[in-house]
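dumping this here before i forget
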Amino acid sequence: MIPVHQASGTSMPVRHYFRALHAIKRRHGCAPRSERLAGRCVGLHTAVAECGLDNGFNLLETALAPVRSDQGGLHELARRAHAELADALQALQADQACILSASQHPDCARDAQWYAQVCVPRAIYRELRDYRGWHHAEGIDAKAQNGANTSVPVARAVDALNVNIAFAAVGLALFANSPLESGRITGLKETRTLLWPRALAAARFPGDRKLCTRPARPFRDLADFFGWMFGPGTVSRGLPVHPSTDYKGVQTLLLDGNPCLMTVLWAGRWRGRSLDGQTALDLEIGAHHFEYSQIGQFLDARLRYRFQTLPSLPDLRAAWRAPGGLEALFTACGAHMYIEGRIPGAGFADACLLEEAGAGVARSMLMAPMAVQAGLLANLDQAVALMHDWGWQRLGALRQAALMSGLEDGQVRALCADVLAVARAGLDPADRSWLAYADFVLHTQHNAADRLLETWRAASGDRSRKLAAVVARHAALDPVQYGA
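structure:
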């Protein structure tokens, strides 16, 4: 979520947000746990959500706890999501701020001064920036996504990942929301997606760039996927001394010689040093390092996993060598696997959408990416067949077409229609209403990027006046205003 000044629309780091949100949660009967970093609050944790920050104090995020189908499914998830949005909007009033319905701020700096002012001081950013050579400031203009997360059976996890990567053009066309950057029209529907190629353009290790580049073919199985992600040609991230799932905050050691993770897993022990060179240790390598390293790729979707019981390192190696071995190992260890969708831009119902489409479509906007992904993965055989019908290479070309032209491209429109039909068939009839926003965009051939761009062009005056017009038309509405 992109917090902006409620009158000017300028990007702003939150200052009083977490204190106000804490009070709101307490009034709801929650007992939130605060997370602090360098003396500042950077998150609140409740039983149903983690409310925090992404890379900057000018980029909020909320991660909801999983909801099972027998707990109410998409309807219960929607209830919780809209409740969290309402709380966030109320808390932002303490900063005279609101949330902009955009996946990248339309007019924000990405320079060193702004970066130093707003970047959250997490340990991982020092490694990425100072050791791996990433241009981390590329993402400091509040780039935001609406990440759908859907659990999948271990045996179908790679199929599910392939489908999400294959149909990225659909997520771009339906949910694009960033046609502006630094106060200029970019000519793209979703400029946000340039983040990783830009950030990794000068990376010290070429393998880092590989991990944000669409593979030439679908993955065959888990061994194939993890070989691509952790094998020769890649360089392992720093690894924690002790088991941890704090992917961004834990202190790690950089590995001598810059090996790939597969080499380290096969060695069983490796020398590591702190970024400042003050600490050097021999790391005892375990399967927890394999689990910890899962976020190190930046495709349009991620395969996420958590073992209920960690396997031994010899068992992990043996399974990797055997056909279907990792699938069997993950199942035996009770692994929970899910797909993290990364392509849909962050979008919220705003005055412009409510006026154009009505309350029913507005109500579905926040949940539409989740509904599309959940429907596809519930109808996975048909989704895989559709992927093969269109062809991997053709689908990759349509990703670029969607980025440039959105629904103006006839082939992209046809693909969206096919994918929505498969997703609709995968959803229970009661859940299909959450596709209303996607259906509206397809029918009108008019996405959030188009609406934002029209507002920008119609506003008279300089960039500051245009930005004020944008926030007036595209600030996220309180869910009560559209009946959620």
